[in-house]
């Protein structure tokens, strides 16, 4: 209760200052959401959301170019997928779904997806309504060699900073397209600035405080990970080798 009261008093104080950076006024659309990680030792980071993936993908007698596939989080289905224009692979818990030619085949004997080792293997028969296809996958994920103290930007598929669009209006009024899961809602709120900090308060949500940097056409919001929330799953295998994680979102002026 004391912690909640302290946060409320902090937010009240910040907004009571009535400081507005008028250069922020206008509409800003999200361009990129990412994490910036800082290495605390030399190591090889597996950039699972990066490119290109390398190796073999063969369905029956058809071979697919691994470099065309991208690993991503499907916000609607709440699942991770590896997809190209012609083939979608869905990691459905212990099962692998193969979406091909309008049908969803289920691989009977599972798969191996190991981010720490940077590999994805599957070998067996997938079935759909009595039909079967042969699946052979042997892939290596993108890798990046990092030196101690070096920073690297990693794609944020999970949208830690949830604002799709920010409209900063005069008088500290705010309107935002706010992402919750796969639902995008337009919500009102308030905004304020205090030195290099931007304070955003959206209706029915705790106040967020970010560092901000901007020029005429771009706005970068950032916040260091300081709480005990889980490290994103594509970064967690390397958590002991990382000294700092910074959440960032880049917006472009409309």
Give the helices and strands, then pairings:
Blueprint: H1 2-16, E1 26-39, E2 43-46, E3 54-59, E4 62-65, E5 70-74, E6 79-83, E7 88-92, E8 95-100, E9 103-107, E10 112-114, E11 119-128, E12 131-140, E13 143-146, E14 151-155, E15 163-168, E16 173-180, E17 183-194, E18 197-202, E19 208-214, E20 218-224, E21 242-253
Structure description:
The protein is mainly beta and 254 residues long. The protein is built from one helix and 21 strands. It is globular.
Summarize the structure.
By secondary structure, the protein is mainly beta. The chain is built from 1 helix and 21 strands. The longest helix has 15 residues, at 2-16.
Number of strands: 21
The value of Rg in angstroms is 22 Å
What share of residues is helical? Answer: under 10%
Compute the average pLDDT.
Answer: 89
SSE-based structural type: mainly beta
Strand content: over 45%
- Main beta-sheet strand count, sense and barrel state: 10 strands, antiparallel
SSE string, helix = H, strand = E? HEEEEEEEEEEEEEEEEEEEEE
**Global morphology:** globular
Assembly state of the chains shown = single chain
Low-confidence stretches: 1-9, 11-17
What is the CA–CA distance across the termini? 41 Å
Q: What's the total helix number? A: 1
């Amino acid at each position: 209760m004391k912690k909640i009261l302290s946060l409320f008093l902090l937010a009240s104080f910040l907004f009571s200052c009535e400081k507005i950076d008028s250069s922020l006024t206008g509409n800003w659309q999200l361009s990129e959401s990412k994490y910036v990680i800082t290495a605390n030792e030399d190591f090889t980071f597996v950039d699972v959301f990066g490119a290109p993936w390398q190796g073999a993908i063969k369905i029956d007698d058809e071979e697919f170019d691994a470099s065309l596939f991208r690993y991503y989080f499907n916000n609607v289905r709440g699942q991770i997928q590896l997809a190209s224009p012609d083939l979608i692979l869905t990691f459905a818990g212990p099962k692998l779904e193969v979406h091909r030619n309008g049908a969803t085949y289920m691989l009977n004997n599972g798969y191996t997806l190991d981010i720490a080792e940077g590999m994805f293997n599957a070998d067996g028969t997938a079935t759909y309504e009595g039909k079967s296809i042969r699946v052979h996958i042997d892939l290596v994920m993108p890798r990046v060699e990092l030196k101690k103290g070096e920073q690297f930007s990693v794609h944020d598929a999970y949208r830690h900073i949830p604002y799709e669009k920010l409209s900063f209006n005069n008088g500290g009024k705010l309107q935002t397209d706010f992402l919750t899961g796969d639902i995008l809602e337009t919500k009102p709120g308030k905004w304020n600035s205090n030195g290099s900090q931007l304070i955003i308060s959206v209706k029915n949500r705790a106040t967020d405080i970010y560092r901000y940097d901007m020029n005429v056409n771009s706005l970068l919001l950032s916040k260091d990970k300081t709480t005990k929330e889980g490290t994103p799953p594509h970064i967690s295998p390397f958590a002991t080798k990382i000294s700092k994680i910074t959440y960032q979102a880049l917006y472009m002026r409309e």
